[in-house]
From TrEMBL, chain A:
It comes from the Bacteria. Residues 38-143 form the Aldehyde oxidase/xanthine dehydrogenase a/b hammerhead domain. This is Xanthine dehydrogenase YagR molybdenum-binding subunit. GO terms for molecular function: iron ion binding; oxidoreductase activity. It holds the Pfam family Ald_Xan_dh_C. InterPro entries: Ald_Oxase/Xan_DH_a/b, Ald_Oxase/Xan_DH_a/b_sf, Ald_Oxase/xanthine_DH-like, AldOxase/xan_DH_MoCoBD1, AldOxase/xan_DH_MoCoBD2, AldOxase/xan_DH_Mopterin-bd_sf.
From TrEMBL, chain B:
It comes from Limimaricola pyoseonensis. GO terms for cellular component: periplasmic space. One of its GO terms (molecular function) is metal ion binding. PANTHER family: ALDEHYDE OXIDOREDUCTASE IRON-SULFUR-BINDING SUBUNIT PAOA (PTHR45331:SF1), OXIDOREDUCTASE, IRON-SULPHUR BINDING SUBUNIT-RELATED-RELATED (PTHR45331). Keywords: 2Fe-2S, Iron, Iron-sulfur, Metal-binding, Oxidoreductase. The lineage of its organism: Bacteria, Pseudomonadati, Pseudomonadota, Alphaproteobacteria, Rhodobacterales. This is Xanthine dehydrogenase YagT iron-sulfur-binding subunit.
């Protein structure tokens, strides 16, 4: 019944290339599209259950002290109020991705301003909101706590670092050297759907309709938080309104809803307000990064240094993995990489789209631009000269790497050869400049399961608790199954987002498509084998197309072969030796043209192009959209996005979408994306790698580098807002 | 509080808490959850509906202010099997990813084309007297009240151009 596959050796058979249906890779529309565009796809807080009550979280007004609900009885007596929940099981902050157990639970002590410490439950949303505003939280016996990473206590993360060769000496001997410090601020994922859960008990069994990315972990996290067995928990998340890391781990609203539903005996909905999304979900840590680059006269790197400072709440192990791709992107014998974690009482730091590379490669790429300028070498050529033959630290081979092709092809497509000299091209009051940066992101395969059922009528159903958070899972899993079983796309149904179904990898770390896709592939292989057995032919001799099997110069329909039977197989993929045997990563290059206003310092991105290589592309349309999304996150990072923290108590000062500026339509040009043809046999039997995060891993660097080319101004403190640019004009 | 209005062509009589926003009336009381709550502040546009043909953020408006109004949320523009040209164009051009901002984008785009047809200028219209053209710049400017964190903006522009071509 279950077919297990462990990724221990490269999949050189490339079976998908030999299939006949022609679905994999095709730019097909999302099958759930008509539901999304008509408002009939159902998100977490959209189930109007009978007798539904509404809960509103209440936050701690400071970062220290014992929590006291000063007027609890008065609030409980307000019109419509059903309960005021102040329970030790409430989560202090969300779980980190793949935690699989509850995070710190504490409603009695304040740790950061914004921490949810109580829930008001009422008959209606209006009653709950009003009563929650009336609930007065007092903090007793608090002491001042560190909120500034620059002055807080530091915990070195030595397992993430490296000291190879002698970087100091390489810097001294270098013909061209760069020693610069950059800063990136905290970011918020800010998905358009605020985090929400509806909890409903049936006896001792809990059903949670939630907005989550990784259901099998979330189920265990919720059970652990409540102190019940995971078998009693079912989570449903068929549609998720964006995540970008912020919905990886179980969050406070789910536990609060579950406790409230138990206490009131009614289903309870708890949706975060937009300010709460900013204050209580996950932030990307701010970073301070000192980069040192030592190069010879031709720009060849002899040394690379990256020393990063990040932060998190006490008790959290996550430290923004800034160094992740610096370990292997460029050559250089002498390498010193280090990561320090400061303990601060700001909201929890965790995964925001491409943790690590989004900020680590962006800053490295800015420093590379500075080196190119110092050495008088074209920035693209500088990258080309420093592509290492093998992993420069481990000596391992790369699984596949079309990095040089991405640089060359991207430069050609963009028209890079027309790049102006620094601060030389002006159109009216606008300075025009080009910038580029490399893209790199580690690639991971995760354990994942899916069931595929071939029905007697020759239609198929794919079932897994995998999520589609806008990433295209509904599309690609159907394409893989259709390809393997020789079925038109509309003959395959894909059911997702239910923990009663086989547990998948979840959506995160760019691993969802390759991992869950492989589980579907493995299940389909087993079905193919069974079909072949029925026909008495070798599976490899079987051609399946349009619901028919072709073998030995004969043709039979699937219905004829199945003779009224159904075939159901579960595919189970496990990562194996290929994860360690080679260096697996995705690569690319960004090219940008900006116009910078000489009077105001305003930057407009006029053109942007990305060339990317991420193994086999499973759906050219949704893959391109993922790249666009990443690159546009990069525009926000480069120009506008910054969580601003109050110096005194560490609270988020800009906790809404009018003050935390994500890009809007007018900020974004008609970006072009090139997906390079690639097969990575080491990554998965699909030869696919992750693509959901590659688009942001350096993109902001290309924009800031373009600002320098346009104006001669180097902004080393992200984002490059008008004030910082104009100061140098 | 009693309010009588037309929703998707049907007259509805509602007796709700006067604090109920038009958005919450649709989502919590009428089962029309196509209009999304992204911020409840009028900052994101996910709740955009058509009121008497014009685009409005339903979260910024109380239900009781709409006595006699004609409200068309996304469900009234088209349903699977009978999508409007704008809805169909969003599917074909992948003008979305997660889909949460999408109903608001589509309501907004539908009304925006009408505004251009009526000659309304925007911030980027060079000549206030001339009929505005449906350029990428005009579309991007006029659609900037609808945020999309998945950042499907280039595809949204393509979808609107396609829909405009079909309906022209």
């Amino acid at each position: 019944m279950t077919e297990q596959f462990k990724m221990d050796a490269p999949a050189t058979d490339r079976r998908l290339d030999g299939m006949a249906q022609g679905l994999v890779g095709a730019p097909l529309d999302r099958p759930e599209g008509p539901l999304k565009v008509s408002g009939t796809a159902t998100y977490a807080d959209e189930y109007r259950l009978e007798n539904l009550a509404h809960g509103m979280l209440v936050r701690a007004p400071g970062n220290s002290g014992r929590v006291r609900l000063a007027n609890r009885d008065a609030v409980a007596a307000m019109p419509g109020v059903l309960a005021v929940i102040h329970d030790p099981r409430l989560l202090r902050n969300p779980a980190q991705g793949t935690a699989n157990k509850a995070p710190v639970q504490d409603a009695n002590e304040a740790h950061y301003l914004g921490q949810p410490v109580a829930l008001v439950v009422a008959e209606s949303f209006e009653h709950a909101r009003h009563a929650a505003h009336a609930l007065k939280i007092e903090l007793e016996g608090g002491t001042p706590r560190p909120v500034d990473p620059e002055t807080a206590a530091i915990e070195p993360q030595s397992s993430k670092g490296l000291d190879q060769g002698d970087l100091d000496r390489a810097m001294t001997e270098a013909v061209h050297a760069v020693d610069v410090t950059y800063r990136t601020p905290s970011h918020s994922s800010a998905p358009m759907e605020p985090h929400a859960s509806i909890a409903q008990w049936d006896g001792e069994n809990l059903t949670l309709r939630g907005s989550y990315q990784m259901l099998k972990y979330n189920r265990n996290e919720l059970a652990d938080a409540l102190g019940i067995h995971p078998d009693r928990v079912r989570i449903l998340a068929p549609y998720v309104g964006g995540g970008f890391g912020s919905k990886l781990g179980l969050a406070p609203e789910a536990v609060a809803a579950a406790i409230a539903a138990k206490e009131t005996g009614r289903p309870v909905s708890v949706a975060l307000t937009r300010p709460q999304v900013f204050e209580t979900t996950m932030r990307r840590s701010e970073t301070r990064q000192r980069i040192r680059l030592a190069a010879d006269a031709e720009g060849r790197l002899a040394g690379i240094g990256q020393a990063a400072l990040v932060s998190n709440l006490p008790g959290e192990v996550f430290a923004e993995p800034v160094l992740q791709a610096t370990h292997f992107l460029y050559a250089g014998e002498n390498r010193r990489l280090s990561l320090d974690l400061a303990r601060v009482h700001r909201l929890c730091a965790g995964s925001v789209r491409a943790p690590g590379e989004a900020v680590g490669i962006t800053v490295l790429e800015c420093a590379m631009d500075e080196l190119a300028e110092a050495a008088g070498i074209d920035p693209v050529e500088l990258r080309r000269r420093n592509i290492p033959e093998k992993d420069p630290e481990s000596g391992k081979e790369f699984s596949s790497r079309r990095f040089r092709e991405a640089l060359d092809s991207g430069a050609e497509a963009f028209g890079w050869s027309d790049r102006p000299a620094t601060r030389s091209r002006r159109e009216g009051e606008w300075w025009i400049g080009y910038g580029m940066a490399s893209a790199a992101r580690v690639n991971v395969l995760m354990e994942s399961r899916a069931r595929v059922t071939l029905a007697p009528d020759g239609s198929a159903k794919v079932e897994t608790d995998m999520t589609d958070i806008g990433t295209g899972t509904y599309a690609i899993l159907g394409q893989i199954a259709g390809e393997m079983l020789g079925l038109p796309r509309d003959r395959v149904e894909v059911v997702l987002g239910d923990t009663d179904l086989p547990p998948a990898s979840g959506s995160g770390g760019s691993w969802g498509a390759a991992s869950s896709g492989t589980s579907v592939y493995v299940a389909c292989q087993a079905i193919r084998a069974q079909l072949a057995e029925r026909l008495g032919v070798a599976e490899t001799e079987l051609t399946l197309k349009d619901g028919q099997a072709v073998f030995d110069n004969r043709t039979e329909t699937l219905a004829e072969i199945l003779k009224g039977d159904e075939i159901a197989k579960e595919g189970h993929v496990l990562p194996g030796d290929t994860s360690k045997a080679v260096r697996q990563a995705t690569f690319g290059a960004y090219f940008v043209e900006v116009a910078v206003n000489g009077v105001t310092g305003e930057t407009r991105v006029r053109r942007m192009h990305g060339s990317f290589a991420a193994g086999r592309i499973l759906n050219a349309k949704t893959a391109r959209s993922q790249c666009l999304g990443g690159m546009i996150f990069g525009i926000g990072m480069a120009l506008t996005e910054e969580l601003a923290f109050d110096d005194r108590d560490g609270h988020v000062a800009n906790h809404n979408l009018a003050e935390y500026h994500i890009p809007v339509n007018a900020d974004v040009p008609q970006i072009t994306v090139e997906l390079l043809e690639e097969r990575d046999d080491w990554a998965s039997p699909l030869q696919a790698k992750g693509i959901g995060e590659l688009g942001i891993c350096g993109a902001a660097g290309a924009i800031v580098n373009a600002i320098h080319n346009a104006t001669g101004v180097r902004v080393r403190d992200f984002p490059a807002t008008l004030d910082k640019v104009i100061a140098g004009l | 509080m009693q309010t009588s209005l037309t929703i998707n062509g049907e007259t509805r009589q509602l007796d709700l808490d006067p604090r109920t926003s038009l958005l919450d009336a649709l989502r919590h009381h009428l089962g029309l959850t196509g209009s999304k709550k992204g911020c409840d502040h009028g900052q994101c546009g996910a709740c955009t509906v058509l009121i008497n043909g014009r685009r409005v953020n339903a979260c910024l408006s109380l239900l009781c202010m709409h006595e006699g109004d004609e409200v068309v949320p996304i469900e009234g523009l088209g349903q699977p099997g009978a999508l409007s040209p704008m809805q169909q164009a969003f599917v074909e051009k992948d003008g979305y990813q997660c889909g949460y901002c999408t109903p608001g984008q589509i309501c907004s785009a539908t009304a925006m084309l009408e505004e251009i047809a009526q000659g309304w200028p925007s911030h980027v219209t060079a000549d206030l007297e001339a009929r505005p053209e449906l350029t990428t710049e005009e579309i991007s400017e006029r659609m900037s009240g609808n945020l999309c964190r998945c950042s499907a903006y280039p595809n949204i522009v393509d979808a609107i151009r396609k829909a405009a071509g079909e309906t022209a």
